């Protein structure tokens, strides 16, 4: 979910930035062509076509992170070439390009790309016969440092917003919004690649009795302990979501040949480690459904819920797999 949210955000920035870049550069293609500066016009046109091609590929391939880095390097290389070729007339393009780099990639990466581009301009361009090299170094350094600070703060804010949007505040498990998004991605992956996925609904047995006997504060602590135990015994790419109350959903991609062993080992571990304040064990019932062709998010959850109902009917503290 987090990666998907970040990719959508990055793609929107990429599309906006590319539109601004193309609209900003194209008039200079015409101006330089009419002025007889064919080389500079060709370079500008190549920049436009390159940006359009890379953004289109990023949009359709969804490889946003990689393509954003490629575009960042591409536009910095382009501004170095155009300054070398066109001299002082193209010098001011350095500043918007350096600033745009911080929109495309992580702050540290952007700063490094800017440093390399800046050194290349100093070493290869003759514009410093006209302007002060010291002024260029100071102004571009200040621009890059200011953009670095702003981009770093923005990245922290985005991660905070991402967490608030996808994580259950009480338990630290992912929430239902994240679950829906991840289930959609898992179904798409299963349909495309035939990879089996497993969905389990977990219900803490007799949890109401815990709240009634020990109070809601203890009940909340039990839920938090459950999430800590469960997440420490699943794989890093398995996902645990709070479904509501004492019910949780576990999404398991790339199921092994013996999913029942994995599920029952997890159930046994929770039974051993999850206790009330006076040391009484708390058990968990599992309703498990594997992905099958034609599965939707709703039907998948329904099959797991029906299996959970059977697990409760069998006396709880067990796992039932949907057929």
What does this structure look like?
By secondary structure, the chain is an alpha+beta fold. The protein has 2 domains: 2-166, no CATH class; 176-321, Reverse transcriptase/Diguanylate cyclase domain (Alpha-Beta Plaits). The chain is 67% helix and 10% strand. It has helices spanning 2-34, 38-61, 64-86, 94-104, 107-124, 133-166, 176-193, 207-214, 216-232, 259-273, 297-313; strands at residues 197-204, 239-244, 247-253, 284-290, 319-321. Helix 11 (297-313) links the parallel strand 4 and strand 5 (319-321). Helix 3 runs antiparallel to helix 4 and helix 3 (64-86) packs parallel to helix 5. The model has no long low-confidence stretch (mean pLDDT 89).
- Estimate percent helicity: 55-70%
Q: Count the DSSP helices.
A: 11
- Percentage of residues in strands: 5-15%
- The total beta strand count reads 5
Largest sheet: 5 strands, mixed
The overall number of domains is 2
Task: Quote the distance from N terminus to C terminus.
Answer: 28 Å
Radius of gyration: 28 Å
The low-confidence runs, each spanning 5 or more residues with pLDDT under 50, are none
- The best one-word shape is elongated
Q: Please, what is the oligomeric state?
A: single chain
Strand order of the largest sheet: 2-3-1-4-5
- SS-derived structural category: alpha+beta
Mean pLDDT: 89
- Which series of helices and strands comes N to C? HHHHHHHEHHEEHEHE
GO molecular function, one term: diguanylate cyclase activity
Enzyme class: transferase
Catalytic activity: 2 GTP = 3',3'-c-di-GMP + 2 diphosphate
Organism: Shewanella polaris
């Amino acid at each position: 979910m987090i990666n998907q949210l970040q990719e959508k955000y990055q793609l929107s920035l990429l599309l906006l930035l590319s539109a601004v870049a193309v609209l900003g550069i194209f008039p200079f293609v015409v101006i330089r062509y009419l002025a007889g500066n064919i080389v500079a016009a060709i370079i500008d046109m190549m920049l436009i076509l390159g940006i359009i091609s890379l953004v289109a590929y990023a949009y359709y391939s969804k490889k946003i992170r990689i393509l954003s880095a490629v575009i960042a390097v591409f536009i910095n290389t382009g501004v170095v070439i155009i300054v070398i070729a066109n001299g002082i007339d193209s010098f001011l393009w350095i500043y918007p390009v350096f600033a745009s780099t911080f929109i495309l990639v992580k702050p540290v990466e952007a700063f490094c790309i800017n440093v390399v581009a800046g050194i290349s301009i100093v070493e290869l361009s003759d514009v410093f016969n006209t302007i002060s090299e010291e002024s260029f170094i100071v102004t571009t350094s200040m621009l890059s440092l200011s953009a670095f600070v702003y981009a770093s703060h923005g990245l922290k804010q985005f991660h905070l917003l991402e967490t608030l949007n996808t994580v259950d505040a009480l338990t630290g498990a992912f929430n239902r919004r994240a679950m829906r998004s991840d289930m959609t991605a898992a179904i798409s992956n299963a349909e495309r690649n035939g990879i089996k996925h497993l969905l389990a609904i977990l219900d803490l047995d007799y949890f109401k009795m815990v709240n009634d006997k020990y109070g809601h504060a203890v009940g909340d602590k039990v839920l938090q302990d459950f999430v800590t135990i469960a997440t420490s015994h699943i794989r890093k790419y398995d996902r645990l979501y709070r479904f509501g109350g004492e019910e949780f959903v576990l999404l398991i991609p790339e199921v092994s040949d013996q999913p029942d062993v994995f599920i029952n080992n997890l159930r046994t571990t929770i039974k051993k480690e999850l206790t009330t304040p006076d040391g009484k064990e708390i058990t968990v019932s599992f309703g498990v459904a594997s992905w099958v062709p034609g599965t939707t998010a709703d039907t998948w959850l329904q099959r797991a819920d029906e299996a959970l109902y059977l697990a409760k009917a069998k006396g709880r503290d067990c796992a039932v797999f949907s057929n």
